[in-house]
Amino acid sequence: MEHVNIDTIIDKYPNDASSLIQVLLEIQREHRWLSNEALDKVSKRLRVPLNRIQHIVTFYKAFSLIPKGRHEIHVCTGTACHVRGAPRLLDSIQDLTGIRPGETDMELKFSLETVGCVGCCALGPVMVIDGEYHGKMAPARSEAVLKNYV
Amino acid sequence: MPRIHTPIELEAFRKDILSKRDPSKPCIAVCTGTGCLALGASKVVVALREEIKKQGLESNVDIKVDLRETGCPGFCERGPVIVIYPEEICYLQVQPGDAAEIISQTIIGKKVIERLLYVDPVSGEKSVRESDIPFYKHQMRLLIGNNIRLDPKSIEDYLSLGGYTALPKALFQMNPEQVVALVKDSKLRGRGGAGFPAGTKWEFARNSPGDTKYVVVNADEGDPGAFMDRAILEGNPHAVLEGFAIGAYAIGAREGYIYVRQEYPLAVENVTIAIRQAEEYGLLGKNILGSGFDFSVHVHRGAGAFVCGEETALLRSLEGKPGEPKARPPYPAVKGLWDKPTNINNVETWANVPLIVNNGAEFLTSIGTDKSKGTKIFSLVGKVKNTGLVEVPMGITLRNIIYQVGGGIPGDKKFKAVQTGGPSGGCIPEQYLDMGVDFDELAKVGAIMGSGGMIVMDEDTCMIDVAKYFLNFLTDESCGKCTPCREGIRQMLKILTNISEGRGKEGDIELLEALAETTRDASLCALGGSAPNPVLSTIRYFRDEYEAHIQEKRCPAFVCKELIHYYIDPEKCKACMICFRKCPADAIEGGKNLIHVIDQEKCTNCGTCFEVCPSRFGAVRRLSGEPVPPPLAEEARPLVREN
Amino acid sequence: MSEIQLQIDGKVVKATEAMTILEAARSAGISIPTLCNSEKLETYGACRICVVEMESFGTPRLVAACVFPVQKDMVVKTRSERVDRTRKMLLEEMLAHAPDSVELQKLAGEYGADKDRFEKEASFCILCGLCVRYCAEVKKKDALGFVDRGAKREIAFIPEIAAQECWNCKECFPLCPTSALQAAYVLTEALAFPAEKHKQQR
């Protein structure tokens, strides 16, 4: 898969430290993770010390220092979803994929994350896979939904 | 698109748009907000489009029909939602399979499809028009009402509804000080959580020395359970842009930033398109409408941090730094983005501004209570029948919101509490259902307005679990810089976890209160300062639940897993084998005609048996705080069936 | 710079506009305890041990003396029941991390803080940031920094830079209120396992 070159991404934004988060977000989106090489390059080109980059990529949840799987599962654990049973949905996803939030499976098929709230509270519990929203998710439906993703 | 150079040209352009639109022409408006999209709205759109073609309406001379993909009207529980104009017929829970009938029956045949209408659960009465539906009827939808009427990706739709009337009025008929005075007179208070008077905040920024100033839209909306800003920004981005530009003019800023949380990709997309369109038309950018006022807007995405909803942390994030809040004073109005005077307001606050400029300060002051004017959009979610976004005047009672608009608690369960203000807020019990909702009244009972999240809880909600949930959320979202927040939340969470797992002890409540005091008093920012609220409000109103957990190891709501045991009543068990098969831990001993018995050693407390036991048997009991009866003796297990 | 008069512990103190309460107090010989503050570094405001009670401008509230600017007619109390209670709790929260820290124990004695009030935590670090800030502001090497957030926040060295600079420097170690045990630990970790940059834990 052709990745957009990191330098090309950096060139799209103002060349100073304030672009740091936007640049990293785009690299994360394109490459599905932030490698050490990527971070070194950003550090040099935007003239930001590595310790600040280190803080930012671990501070913000959008960034991943390990490659994400082909399919990203986000289980909403917002209050409305929580009250409607999100913990049990999360349990079922964990059982089916064998991974916990923040992890990717060995075949790089699924990555699992919890999300504070995706703004679909009326549809809770909600699970988003590759940007596709699955609402009113009963844990019993988890297996059928995951089967659609190869 | 030709650039518009003057207000006169703008009005001519608007007239031109309106002249090309026939109000009597049928239009099918389909909500394509994130919620309805999740329920399949895009497939409904495709199906309708196909049917319009199939039934010959594309080339028909007599009957023409528009299909519009719109923003979120808020009735999320019943999505996908469509409204058919000009009759304003509202169909709910529409599926692609309904498309053929909608075109043939309603568009061509002018007949209403009964089964797609709203039905009142008590009276059985059907509502045809959107405005007749009780959910909408009891609201005052000044801000969100237009969402279903326009395509957020079309500036012309916004113009056709009177949009961009306020901006030229402000730029050409008022000077900046007059705009500030107007917003002050309207008594608009910030809709993001603190409720600080917007006009006063604008005035501070206006009066701060310096030539370079900034304005910011806070669209981080991190409170879990709140999604009104998403609906406005996604569904009517131009309303926000117009208010934003007016504010920039009033304050003296030439650049603005819209900080949108990255979990809202559709809002990012729609507001980016809206900015581009507005710039093309000359409504944003250099020399807006020939006024000499320049204002350019940039969209900046968040990266997954709740704390970035706090204004100083948001500014750090805009600067490309970790979202660590900064000490105040100095306030952003004096020293904000890159140390320049900056005014930050919430999406809903900005969206109120065009209404105020167009209609005057009295427009807002005539609605609401003495100190809280205007309307507020609440996201009514949780254990309530009509979950969705509700816009109501300040001062309306909780009871009206939850029961009249919200339809009450599903399953005839008993109301227990309503949580307002997210992780910074509190739980309000039944005795306050008749209180009028406004900033100050909520503060009196130990809650806050917050951004408007309103989470209804019933008898099946455990308040210790709720307090633990919020602390769990905050311990991860705190930036971690200051001791009282990082360590205080850490210790409070430990105690609550112990209590919920049966390890609570005498003195825990007092220790929680002591920790809460330090965290509240000494934290650097409002995240820490308000973190104790959920704990303190649940202790205040539900102390008996805390005591039950601590002293009796009992969870009255049967939520805390470690405090619940499941037991099959031998009198009621009919050996149907359903739970026996479904148990994921193979913890049920049983068989054909053998009364089932749960092996408590193997049981993981998942609750599956309780859920699957047929209701006519109801043989599985939940026990908490009482000893589990010993397992039925082997000899007694064969089931004696009556003939 | 204009002069501002304020009251600290009943004493009238003359200060200048740009001063913080801490600076004004020190100029008048009034001492306020600090942990994350250092004359060599920019003020940080994280430990909160310097909280004082500000009685003017509405209901009395606690503010951090090291960052709060002086204002005309301000009335400040550097000790009170509320201040002492707060400092005691903060110390107890920190002692859960570093019960043997000499500096913390000294303050603990003064405020009656019990080092066993809370269960021991795994990390020695109280995240005062002195090491990080010293390396950034004074040495200008940025050899270490913060990672993660909330209860998971910690300090970590950048292995590539630390390998070159730290073993012969260690100037940040004496600044540490908890005897630099955490710094020594994470430095060793960084030098011994440079390939394992901060792993994500959830």
Would you kindly provide a written description of the structure presented here, covering whatever features stand out?
The complex is a heterotrimer of chains A (150), B (643) and C (202). Chain A is α+β, with helices and mostly antiparallel strands and 150 residues long. Chain A folds into 2 domains: 6-59, no CATH class; 71-147, Glutaredoxin. Chain A has helices at residues 6-11, 20-31, 36-46, 50-59, 79-83, 86-97, 142-147, and strands at 71-76, 110-115, 127-129, 132-134. Chain A has a 4-stranded mixed β-sheet, covered by helices on one side. In chain A, helix 2 packs antiparallel against helix 3. Chain A is elongated. The two termini of chain A are 17 Å apart. The model of chain A has no long low-confidence stretch (mean pLDDT 91). Chain B is of the alpha/beta class and 643 residues long. Chain B folds into 5 domains: 10-137, Glutaredoxin (3-Layer(aba) Sandwich), CATH 3.40.30.10; 161-365, 3-Layer(aba) Sandwich (Rossmann fold); 375-458, Ubiquitin-like (UB roll) (Roll), CATH 3.10.20; 463-551, NADH-ubiquinone oxidoreductase 51kDa subunit, iron-sulphur binding domain (de novo design (two linked rop proteins), Up-down Bundle), CATH 1.20.1440; 564-636, Alpha-Beta Plaits. Chain B is 38% helix and 14% strand. Chain B has 24 helices and 19 strands. A 5-stranded mixed β-sheet of chain B has the order 12-11-15-13-14. In chain B, strands 2-1-3-4 form a 4-stranded mixed β-sheet, with helices on one face. In chain B, strands 9-8-7-10 form a 4-stranded parallel β-sheet, sandwiched between helices. In chain B, helix 12 (265-281) links the parallel strand 8 (255-260) and strand 9 (296-301). The relative contact order of chain B is 0.08. The model of chain B has no long low-confidence stretch (mean pLDDT 95). Chain C contains 6 helices and 7 strands, in the order ββαβββαααββαα. In chain C, helix 2 packs antiparallel against helix 3 (102-111). The longest helix of chain C has 15 residues, at 81-95. In chain C, the strands form 2 sheets. Chain C has a 5-stranded mixed β-sheet, sandwiched between helices. A two-stranded antiparallel sheet of chain C has the order 6-7. Chain C has helices at 21-27, 81-95, 102-111, 130-137, 159-165, 181-192; strands at 3-8, 11-16, 51-54, 61-64, 75-77, 144-147, 154-157. Chain C folds into 3 domains: 3-79, Ubiquitin-like (UB roll) (Roll), CATH 3.10.20; 82-121, no CATH class; 130-192, no CATH class. Chain C is an alpha+beta fold and 202 residues long. The radius of gyration of chain C is 19 Å and the shape is globular. Chains A and B meet through helix 2, helix 4 and helix 5 of A and helix 2, strand 11, strand 15 and helix 18 of B.
